[in-house]
Design brief:
Strand 1, helix 1 and strand 2 form a beta-alpha-beta unit. This protein has a domain of 111 residues: NAD(P)-binding Rossmann-like Domain (Rossmann fold). It is globular. It is α/β, with parallel strands linked by helices. The protein has 6 helices and 6 strands, in the order βαββαβαβαβαα. A 6-stranded mixed sheet has the order 3-4-2-1-5-6.
């Protein structure tokens, strides 16, 4: 919600270049009452210093959105006058979450984790979710195995995944694997 002057809330999204991008796309991309000023990066080497491309960020972000080092959260928050920090990891310990909350609160920003009602994609067909406690548990392999198994039963299968920063996000905005 904008402040008393009608200025959009300034938001930093903390994440691992996955769920943070998804949360942005489904919650903030078209929200004129919010201005996402930065993503932070911590787990994937080489992502900091890049930008979430304008082509994916949408018309409210003609220059895209910077991806910055998570270690610099307080400096980002001060420079960007952040009102809120959105925590968008899915595979960290409770104490990591609370430490991030403390950092956000210490810089004067609100801290929030978006729930499933806000971030879940809607579907008109049955959905099977593959999830795990942390990165590297075998979600991709499990999804491939299950897809093959379902196809042997004559079902049509699609796998949906959030954008991943391992290449050129703009070029990989939509990929089909067969």
């Amino acid at each position: 919600m904008p402040d008393d002057r009608g200025v959009p809330r300034r938001v930093v999204i903390m994440g691992a270049s996955g769920r943070d991008f998804h949360n942005f796309n489904v919650v903030f991309r078209h929200d004129v009452e919010v201005k996402v000023v930065a993503f932070t990066a911590a787990q994937i080497p080489g992502i900091a210093g890049r930008r979430y491309p304008a082509s994916l960020a949408g018309p409210l972000y003609p220059d895209g959105i910077p991806i910055e080092e998570e270690n610099d959260l307080e400096a980002i928050g001060q420079r960007e006058q952040a009102d809120e920090v959105i925590f968008a990891y899915s595979d960290v310990r409770h104490e990591t979450v609370m430490h991030a909350a403390s950092r956000a609160l210490a810089m004067g920003a609100d801290f929030r984790i978006l729930g499933t009602d806000a971030t879940m994609l809607t579907a008109s067909v049955p959905v099977i979710a593959i999830s795990a406690m942390r990165t590297g548990c075998g979600k991709s392999q499990t999804a491939r195995w299950l897809s093959r198994r379902l196809r042997t039963h004559g079902l049509r299968v699609a796998v949906v995944r959030h954008p991943m920063p391992y290449g050129d996000l703009d070029r990989q905005r939509s990929q089909r694997f067969a």
